[in-house]
TrEMBL record:
Family note: Belongs to the UPF0065 (bug) family.
InterPro entries tied to this protein: BUG, Bug_dom1
Signal sequence annotation: 1-26
Name of this protein: Tripartite tricarboxylate transporter substrate binding protein
PANTHER family hit by this protein: BLR1237 PROTEIN, TRICARBOXYLATE-BINDING PROTEIN
SUPFAM superfamilies assigned to the protein according to its UniProt record, in alphabetical order: Periplasmic binding protein-like II
Keywords: Signal
Protein source organism: Achromobacter veterisilvae
Length: 324
């Protein structure tokens, strides 16, 4: 009994010492640069979100926030890299619909669970997507695309550079009851480039890049993915208006770290994120890219991610996309 009691006392002492050491390390956080992983290529909308956010958070944290692009497999490679990282607050990831929600249903063997293998820090931003097409496409409305697809089954091609864009395209095709051939790309910018070149017919893209190319006459626009017109581009109709009534999907972004982030570190990151998102400079930078700031506490964002996993599972099932 005495030996057991002594062993218990020693274990408790070691545990207390470890907690104290962790607390001491957290109290000095951060004391070196922080790595913010973008699991998509440079120029993607996730990259745009991260670079502006990293700069704003660095000002508050007093340490550089280094953005690292680690693309591949629809964002899985970079996100999994962070899920396996040491939970010390020095490796973070900017997640979105693809990497933190729809991927759970799109992939049979997703190597991480966004609800359990990552620590939610907070929401960051949201934006509609813009459906654009090659200039050679017929008509200017979604209803024209549906009519063309009905007359030419399987002829339309659709480029996507993320899981969310894949689902957006599948949902639109299901609404129009047409067959569209999906064509995967490494990222959204590459998909848009091939639409401009006429290699593929259609893609959902971020507003900033899509509008820039549309106003240069390089692509046709068919509408934004939200029920209301976007305030910064009120001349662009919604898909609801041009022939897809009820279409309502939004792209969102958030910040996460590996599971098990210490409480003080999470609090520090959450505080820094809130300060960054309250900055007028960041809000204006995001607005120019078609993004609006989205603020949630770690607990709220965690609950939001879980609800989005269920929401996108239902959409994937509805559209009949087979898991990869």
């Amino acid at each position: 009994m005495k030996r057991s009691a002594a062993a218990l006392k020693l274990a408790l002492g070691l545990g207390a010492a470890l907690l104290a050491a962790a607390g001491a390390r957290a109290a000095g956080y951060p004391d070196r640069p922080i790595r913010m992983v973008v699991p998509f290529p440079p120029g993607s909308i996730t990259d745009v979100v991260a670079r502006s956010l990293g700069k704003a958070m660095a000002d508050g944290l007093g340490q550089p926030v280094v953005v690292e692009n680690k693309p591949g497999a629809n964002g899985i490679i970079g996100t999994h890299d962070v899920a396996r990282a040491k939970p010390d607050g020095y490796t973070l990831v900017v997640v979105g619909v693809s990497t933190a929600a729809s991927g759970v249903s799109l992939f049979k063997d997703l190597p991480y669970n966004p609800a359990t293998d990552l620590t939610p820090i907070g929401a960051v931003a949201e934006t509609p997507y813009l459906l654009v097409g090659s200039p050679r496409m017929p008509g200017d409305r979604v209803s024209d695309l549906f009519a063309y697809g009905a007359r030419h089954p399987g002829k339309l091609t659709y480029a996507y550079g993320s899981g969310s864009a894949q689902v957006f395209g599948a949902k639109l095709a299901a609404m129009g009851k047409i067959n569209v051939t999906p064509v995967p790309y490494r990222g959204g910018p590459q998909a848009l480039t091939d639409v401009i070149g006429g290699t593929v017919d259609l893609t959902f893209t971020d507003l900033a890049n899509g509008l820039q190319q549309a106003r240069a006459g390089k692509v046709k626009t068919y509408g934004v993915s939200t029920p209301e017109r976007f305030a910064l581009a009120p001349d662009i109709p919604t898909l609801n208006e041009t022939g897809a009534p009820g279409f309502d999907l939004t792209v969102w972004f958030g910040l996460m770290g590996p599971a098990g982030l210490p409480g003080p570190v999470l609090d520090r990151l959450s505080q820094s994120l809130d300060q960054a998102l309250a900055s007028d400079e960041l809000k204006q930078t995001y607005a120019r890219q078609g993004l609006s700031v989205k603020v949630q506490t770690p607990a709220e964002f965690g609950g939001f991610v879980r609800s989005e996993i269920d929401k996108w599972a239902a959409i994937v099932k509805e559209t009949g996309i087979p898991p990869q």
